[in-house]
Amino acid sequence: MYAAALCAVTAVWLLVGNGRTRRRARGMLSGEVNPSEPRERWGNVRSRIRAGLKGRWEWLCLPVASVLAVLGQSVLPMIAGAAAIPVVRRWLRRRRLRAKREVRADGVVDLCGALVGELRAGHEPGQALVVAVRSTGVMGETAFRVSAAARFGGDVPKALAQAAGEPGLEGLAGVAACWRVAVGSGAGLAAGLDRLESALRAERRQREELRAQLAGAWSTVAVLALLPVLGTGLGAALGADPLRVLFHSPAGLFCLVTGGLLEVCGLLWAARIVRAGEAA
């Protein structure tokens, strides 16, 4: 195992470090030294890794499971790694959807601000909405329907209300309500949208403050999740060989299954408590 690790380090040094040393020597002899070259090289390596994965980060479970399988000389980590791929994929998908929803919510705030600016600049409401939608690009595929309704005299509040049904665009329901009231009673559309923008900004500020307050709780959950790994590493450092005990003995297998179930239950419980506080 140590020989394989030494060979891997040597190979990496030959591929990266040795070539870099030769280039730096040539640069020093020619008077052309580029100190940012190592940073650019590692940046290119990271870019190639990300481009190769193309968002499929869940497949990294297999290399990690392979390392554990080699160290523990057991096939159980490979089975666990294969079973973890759909779980990690679902978790990553939820994170991406949540990030996309937050970006859209911030885009609605920018849309209100752009629309107010266009109205106060003297543009007609329909033209102002078309320009604001085009400049912010928050609606995505639904922008065509809203822009068409605003440009050709369609039912703009209905189009906005339909767009508000998508995740992250809930604030467009307020824009539709302001538009409907302004058309029906002749009230100032810019004033209503200005108040709506202030309310949405206050809501976003409150969400950011709540997230900052819950950062400590999420850190505690992460530390609790890493405690078994740290305990296993400490046991290996003391020479107890915990992987062999866990994978090759009945008592170790029982402890592994029981501890894994308790770990999963504890993480789900803690995450539910934190999410409940965030949702409230």
TrEMBL record:
Query: What does the UniProt keyword field contain?
Result: Cell membrane, Membrane, Transmembrane, Transmembrane helix
What this protein is called in its record is: Type II secretion system F family protein
Ranges annotated as spanning the membrane: 64-88, 214-239, 251-271
What are the subcellular locations of this protein? Cell membrane
PANTHER family documented for this protein: CONSERVED TRANSMEMBRANE PROTEIN-RELATED (PTHR35007:SF4), INTEGRAL MEMBRANE PROTEIN-RELATED (PTHR35007)
One Pfam match? T2SSF
Q: Which domain of life is it from?
A: Bacteria
Q: Which InterPro entries match?
A: T2SS_GspF_dom (IPR018076)
What is the organism lineage in this UniProt record?
A: Bacteria, Bacillati, Actinomycetota, Actinomycetes, Kitasatosporales
Which organism was this protein described from? Streptomyces castrisilvae
**Which intervals hold domain Type II secretion system protein GspF?**
114-230
Bilayer topology: Multi-pass membrane protein
